[in-house]
Amino acid sequence: MGTVRRDFLKYAGGLSAGIVFTPVPWKVLDDLSIWTQNWSWIPRPLRGEITAKFTNCTLCPAGCGVRVKCIAGQPYQLAGIAEHPVGRPALCPAGLAAHQLPYAAARVTQPIVDGKAATLDEALAAADAKVRTADSVLILDGRPGRCASGMYRRIAAASPKWKVAVAPGCRGSLAGYATLTGSSAGVDYERVRTVLSFGAPVLHGWSTPGRLLARRSEFRLIQVEPSQSRTAAFADEWLPVRPGSEDAVALAIASILVSERLVPAPKAADWETYQSLLARMPVERAAGLAGVTAERLAGVAKRFSAEPAVALGESTAVAGLNVLLGDRAAIVPRGQAEIAELTAIPDGSVNVLIADVSSALPPAMLRRKLAPQGILISLTAWASDLTDIASVVIPVPAWLEAQEDVPGPVDAPSASFSLAVALIPSRPGTMAPADVVARLSGSGETLDEAIAARVAAIHQSGRGSLFRYSDGSSARPAELKEEAFAAALAEGACWVDEPQSSTAPAAHLLGGLTPEEFLARAASVPNGETLLEVSAGMAPVPMLAKLYQESDLYARGDVARINPATARGCADGAAVVLQTRCGTGKPVVRLDSTVAPGLVQIDALPPGDGKGTAMRLCDDLTFSKAELRRA
Amino acid sequence: MATVTKQPKRLGMIIDVDRCYGCGACMVACAVENNVPPPASGSNERTGITPLRVYEARNGKPFPETQPAFFPVMCQQCGEHTPCVSVCPQLAVDVDPHTGVVGQVAERCLGCRYCMAACPYHARYFNWWDPAWPAGMERTLNPEVAPRMRGVVEKCSFCHGRYQAAQSKAAANGSDAIEYVPACAEACPMGAIRFGDLADPESDVAKAAKGPNAFRLLEGIGTDTAVYYTSKRPWVREMAGKRMPGRSEAHG
């Protein structure tokens, strides 16, 4: 019997049915699925030798030590240095992902002149032309204490045309103490038992986090702040005061300290004037302004004065509490303070403002200082509102791209010096800000020379000790040759000075203000008004987007947090119009019971593409009056 | 640093809710360690990838009596009737009998997302997009962890890459002890996240897990999770038995 066509069909049908019961089709499907999921454009990690290097962070004044794991020389993982003499082991969220900063979407990648892309030479030539014809040039130093800051001061000292000011908010929460005493200062965290903080982000952003958090169980934290920030939420005691009443509260506490003789008479030239000033701000009046009871203020004053304590807050009224405590203040004076803040520069007096600033600032604050034809030159790695209004933008290297020095942490009790090490190449078309300013001023000094001179001076002084992260060893400068000392610093080591004398310096408790001015500032508490509060911006690290809900990042733009009690009928997620005297914004509302009633909080720099507009709505870094209405 | 022996064990965590102030360092460290890309444009809370998310819960009182509690929530590494394992048609999810860690094999995953539906902790995420980083940033990827492809589910594995590296190192040194700690526990500035072997009665985590204030999320459903929490605040402990917080309450 021969094979017929029907047999072939039966064989094919049987084969088709049978193959379903074998692994073959499923394996093909599985492989196909994997193949379609693994396209060539999906990034692959680098391959190569894994090494550990050390450097120091410059993203904030904390200056934490960082252990960097590298693959083929490229940093891919950061961790704090457990044995660091200043920072202790903790890194903040921005520091943990800071190796991504050079690739951030907000990176300025090209020089800009009058809104158009230019080469570095063209931008330098344009800036030089503006500076050459200017009568007054102001350098705004966003990170005082660096070798670059020293270069700026020397340039200003050599020519009356040049001036230097430090950017607002960069001197930390003891800035007021520097105003009263002329001395910068650190907090003696080894000794402090009570921290009285006036809005300072003690637990969520201020200071060297590891150093502070490692001692958290050793001190009592009292937070005076209108809203329930993370620090307020986890403080031992939170005083929810009305926005703008912090100075009145500080004066009330001072009044209780003096009237109940809880502190000795301080070394202050204007002590009698200050006493008469306190009499004009009775505790009951201050309590009324702040919306808290006089008894509660008295309790805080007693706890504050009982043990070594420190008051943190930028205003001089708060700093006065540290002066009143005298030797009981857990403060270590660290020598002459930095020069004037931007606020001390007369409005309309600057022809060219060179901003060496990487943090967010309100454009209106800088515009106010410029003469009618004045211009702004921005030296920055990140796009911001300032780069939008600058005539010339010169990109600078990001962290890890160039060597620079790290000034001592603002709160550290002793001076320190370390270097941020260049671990990856700089982008073409970037230049260190100090070198740009030196070139424009014709000073002839370079940043590398300034750093080398500082290193040599430290070695020559023989003071302090050098701490090496790689092996945890310490050595006195005299034990090393200068080349070895410099080489260790270039590999990320940290030099820490010996503790300074803790004798309280003489002070002027009114900080140069008249009693009327001082009192007017303390008593000017807005009542019943909507106030805008812009929270400080963080570095635009891409991975910080993980801290936000994705819908906040992409669907909304600015998010305004307001208390449900003063939401004026706005539902969560509703679009609103926010108007200040500086401009109008259109955020969406997030109802948040931690925000003080009447306050509107917006982040200065939301992560992601960093297109926040909050800074354009305010004219300084304090509360701004605002009007909120439904869109 | 956690020390883990090669004996049968159960890796676990204990998280002190009273010490966590929601800074998000753990979330960032997790994303960096595990090559999680930044959120894709158009993603939302369920389509973005956050293997560890810090949820904020509140005591429900108005300002200023309102009180927060922050819960870092990752895969809870269920030990009993592990819901995701039982529903996976591809055997892409399994429990390592040596560590108790619930593993996810990306190459086996079909992307059906049954496991996501089954997970009572919302701790699994689906890759809706190809993983993408800003130009140049792919150079910063962790070489010990492969980026996952579009179309598969991923989750916390207690930093499996670190475990493997530590295991190899221990073997090379002829040692029985495997020393490693997940990125979140290493990064926490408050020391709120502790990690170790729950099966070792002498370990720090095992002792803390037996403490009077220790609790687990949704303990009533009997998943025998390996992530414990602790809080002295009764309302926080009570909240742990409820469903996860809503979107508006959750952020890092």
Strand fraction of chain B: 15-25%
The overall average pLDDT of chain B, rounded, is 90
Structural class of chain A: alpha/beta
Q: Quickly give the structural class of chain B.
A: alpha+beta
The major sheet of chain B is characterized as: 4 strands, mixed
**Which blocks of ≥5 consecutive residues of chain B have pLDDT under 50?**
245-252
Query: Level of helix content of chain B?
Result: 10-25%
Can you list the strand order of the major beta sheet of chain B?
10-2-12-11
Largest pleated sheet of chain A: 7 strands, mixed
Shape of chain A: globular
Principal-axis shape of chain B equals globular
Termini of chain A, distance in Å?
89 Å
So how many helices of chain B? 7
Gyration radius of chain A, in Å: 29 Å
Describe, in plain words, how this protein is organized in 3D.
- The complex is a heterodimer of chains A (631) and B (252).
- With 631 residues, chain A is α/β, with parallel strands linked by helices.
- In chain A, the strands form 6 sheets. Chain A has a 7-stranded mixed sheet with strand order 5-4-16-15-14-6-7. A 7-stranded mixed sheet of chain A has the order 25-24-28-22-27-23-26, with no helix packed on it. Chain A has a 5-stranded antiparallel sheet with strand order 17-18-21-19-20, covered by helices on one side.
- In chain A, strand 4 and strand 5 (116-117) form a beta hairpin.
- In chain A, helix 9 (246-259) runs parallel beside helix 13 (316-325) and helix 17 packs across helix 18.
- Chain B is of the alpha+beta class and 252 residues long.
- Helices cover 19% and strands 17% of the residues of chain B.
- Chain B is built from 7 helices and 12 strands.
- In chain B, strands 10-2-12-11 form a 4-stranded mixed sheet. A two-stranded antiparallel ribbon of chain B has the order 1-9. In chain B, strands 3-4 form a two-stranded antiparallel ribbon.
- In chain B, strand 5 and strand 6 (102-104) form a beta hairpin.
- The radius of gyration of chain B is 18 Å and the shape is globular.
